[in-house]
Specification:
By secondary structure, the chain is mainly alpha-helical. Helix content is 63%, strand content 8%. Strands 1-4-5 form a three-stranded parallel sheet. Strands 2-3 form a two-stranded parallel sheet.
Length: 183
């Protein structure tokens, strides 16, 4: 396990039926109990279909609920005092990423600011398809489809989406050229 995910990323990926992307890129992905409560327990209570997808991914071992250590709980409390606008769950996710040297998958800008301040590696879901294509774990068609769907779901600025799609197209062109690496 080399990554941990926040609730909003998980919800968007589940709504786009793209939870498989996390496992494809990272293997089993960690989540803290608060993320499970927000996405599964509260989601099911509200009748959200994405909650059932997340629950199924946990049951299949694609997502793994981890138990925070005492040190992680202390760090989460410290992070919360420094960033009072963050939820306890986001602080716990950040603390687990820091203490376990996991890549953080997080959409929350305030959380990513804390990640930068504490040297926590992070990635947003909007760039995951391009990362998967570059590493050869996704085809160009899969990358392009996910960039479009996630971009719409996240209301990504069109300029950023165009840059990501252009990068994928250029990589595809170079790989398809004589002497280029095929995908």
């Amino acid at each position: 396990m080399n990554s941990v995910v926040d609730a909003s990323s998980l919800i968007v990926l589940a709504r786009q039926d793209a939870l498989w992307l996390l496992e494809r890129l990272f293997g089993p992905v960690a989540l803290v109990p608060g993320v499970e409560a927000e996405t599964v327990t509260q989601g099911k209570a509200k009748g959200y279909a994405d909650a059932l997808r997340i629950e199924a991914a946990i049951a299949a071992g694609q997502l793994v609920v981890i138990s925070p250590t005492a040190a992680e709980k202390r760090l989460a409390a410290t992070l919360g005092r420094g960033a009072p606008a963050l939820s306890h769950t986001d602080c716990m996710t950040l603390a687990c990423a820091k203490e376990r040297s996991l890549t953080l998958v997080m959409e929350e800008q305030r959380g990513r600011n804390v990640a930068v301040a504490h040297s926590i590696a992070y990635v947003t879901i909007q760039v995951l398809p391009l990362q998967g294509f570059i590493s050869g774990q996704l085809s160009f068609a899969q990358c392009d489809d996910l960039l479009t769907r996630l971009g719409r779901a996240m209301r990504t600025d069109q300029a950023i989406l165009t840059v990501l799609q252009t990068a994928a197209s250029e990589i595809q062109r170079l790989r398809s050229a004589p002497g280029g690496r095929s995908s």
